[in-house]
Amino acid sequence: MRAMTLSFLVALVLCFAGEPICAMGQDMKAEPQESNMLTFSIQTDKQAYRFGEPILLRGTWENRGEDGLSMNRMFFAVPEVNPWRGESDSWRGVSTSGYGVALKMTAPSGARIPQVLSFIEMGFPHAGWFIYLRSKEGFFSKIADLWEEFGSNLTEEGTYHITATYFNFIERKNFIEKEPDLPYGKEPWTGTVESNTIVIALTKQTKKKGDGSIFE
Q1: Which of 8, 124, 134 is nearest to 74 (CA)?
Q2: Measured between alpha carbons, how far is 114 from 132 in angstroms, rounded to an integer?
Q3: What is each CA distance from 16 to 4, 9, 20, 23, 107, in whole angstroms?
Q4: Is residue 14 in a domain?
Q5: Phi, psi at residue 116, to the nearest 5°?
Q6: Straight-line distance from the first to the last Cα atom of the chain, in angstroms, rounded to the nearest whole number
Q7: Which residues of 25-37 are buried (b: 16+ CB within 10 A; e: fewer)?
Q8: pTM for the whole thing?
Q9: Where are the beta strands (DSSP E) in the chain?
């Protein structure tokens, strides 16, 4: 019990210090998957939300290899992993980009929740989309508001499981520049990497007798 209390206090200290480790969504898988030494993990700011409340999902990427790598930081949430098709077509509402974060959200009943938010393509890729991560260096960014992505399909009270897959299939030859300038002349990291799985709870808003306030 003492060890658990100490761990909790350490987590609180890191949280208020603004470290990326401040993740309040319950983590169901301790270690994120590695893919060519790039790791990817997700977290939310808390464990329980009311219906309609923003659910901010953040991601953390870390280069655990000995060499640096160029990572595509220009991503958006998509329903599934898609290969690069050599074009950018935002009008059809279909990802043709070959890069992004594919979200999987499962309801308390076990059903997969379909996304409702249409996403926007960002045009043809170029070197400015990429960030260079040195060995043991990380990158931290917002991925999406899950209520905006899934909102009208979130109808059940209870616990939801969330997993994400980061992917990039963009290579230097796909850049719009004839001679793209990436740090140290490296090819960008390509492949897929799956995150940890987290669990959040959704509850309906109710009124407390006497003062009309809202509570969970």
Answers
A1: 124
A2: 33
A3: 19, 11, 10, 11, 31
A4: no
A5: -115, -20
A6: 27
A7: bebeeeebbebee
A8: 0.75
A9: 26-27, 34-35, 38-44, 48-50, 56-63, 69-72, 77-78, 99-106, 130-133, 138-145, 158-168, 191-194, 198-203, 206-207, 214-215
Domain count, the chain: 1
Q: Go through the chain and tell me how many residues it has.
A: 216
We report the CATH number of the domain holding residue 101 as 2.60.40.2970
Cα 72 from Cα 170, distance rounded (Å): 8
pLDDT along the chain (216 residues), means of 10: 36 33 49 68 96 96 92 87 63 60 95 79 78 93 93 94 94 77 77 96 70 40
Q: CB under 8 Å to 33, separation ≥6 — which residues? A: 39, 40, 193, 194, 195
Residue 9 lies in a domain: no
Contact 198, 55 (CB under 8 A): no
Does residue 6 sit in helix, strand or coil? helix
Residue 104 lies in a domain: yes
> Domain range for residue 190?
21-205
- 151 burial via Cβ count (<10 Å: 0-12, 13-18, 19+): middle
Residue type at 24 in one-letter notation: M
